[in-house]
Design brief:
Layout lengths: L12 H5 L9 E5 L5 H13 L5 E6 L4 H8 L5 E4 L4 H19 L7 E7 L6 H17 L5 E5 L7 H4 L8 H5 L7 H6 L2 E2 L5 E3 L13 H14 L2 E5 L6 H9 L2 E7 L2 H16 L7 E8 L9 H8 L3 E6 L2 H10 L3 H4 L4 H19 L15
Parallel strand pairs: 1-2, 2-3, 4-8, 4-9, 5-7, 5-8, 9-10, 10-11
Antiparallel strand pairs: 6-7
Helix pairs in contact: 5-15, 9-10
Length: about 375
Amino acid sequence: MNGTKFDLRIAPLEGIAAGGSLPASDLIIVEIDTRNADDVERLGALVEELTPGTAVVATAADATLDDVRKLMRLGLVDVLPQPVRRDDVLAALEHAARVRRTAQRPQASKGRLVSVLKGGGGVGATTVAVQTGCCLAQALEKRGQEVCLLDFDVQGGTVALYLDLKDRMGLADLVSAQDRLDGDLLRGAMSRHPSGLHVISAPPEVMPLDTFGLEFVRRVLDVARREFAVVIVDLPPVWCLWSFEILRQSNEILLVTEMTVPGVRQARRQIDTLGAEGLEELPLRVVLNRYEKRWGEAIGVKEVEKALDHKVDFTVANDYRTVSEALNQGLSIADLRKRSKAFKSIAKISEALVATGSQEEGRLEPHLSGIPRR
């Protein structure tokens, strides 16, 4: 296929998982019964033992959404439904070929992925994502490093609107070009804010969540992380397979909520979902937006932490005037009012992200320098 020769070998999963011989492979396709716990355990053990760069694809009959998620958590590339279609197999082969070519090339530095998760509707998560992105972009520009923000809220994304960017292209335009998606194409679809932040806007019209497939999302993330030192993703308020994949790859997750009973309850649901999906080990930081300390308040930070069973890592001051002016003018808070409480709050988030990045090993490259305190 396309000048590539395939050597096909068939072997039982039981024998391989029990220590049987397996030739070095670029792609392994495993037929599995998702109802058989032993089979799933064998598959997980096999994936752990394989050399890095080996693509593993599963095929299963009557696999539910939960089954697919369970298999993807093992580190698989894809799950093919049965009956298996020719196009699905070809896509798996093409992916294995890309993995092989990538493994043969010197590995470039991989930027850090920070996902912003909404702890309820209207809590200001996109505002936090936008202003944190601007703050990071301004700090890292002097060091020759760049930051991008990907608006994956495909049904209600407002990143471009908040930054007053006249987007010519966006995520929707990249779907049809995913086979030739590279750094140049990605940058061509981006708008650049005066702060230095590069933005991929959400589709201008409401689109179904299944408009984007796993392979497309993986490709966008891979290209973005090779082009930028930090990649921030504004996630949709609902869960789907590709949003799970973004979270799974994240170096850090910012869960944004506010100090109200509905906000805290929704944030707790998100934390519980992360645990149920096997993502509880990911670095999670809770951001309490629109925070305003008042004497005699019924709900305080300690009560919020108790309800969430998680530390509140950051509070963003309730500075309505400054934030509103910034959004209305499409500006970063730093350019509008650097001495404001809102900017000081956002700067602390940026500083912490950079500090954590400089301490991480393995997953994070390059290490980022600290942002001076203001």
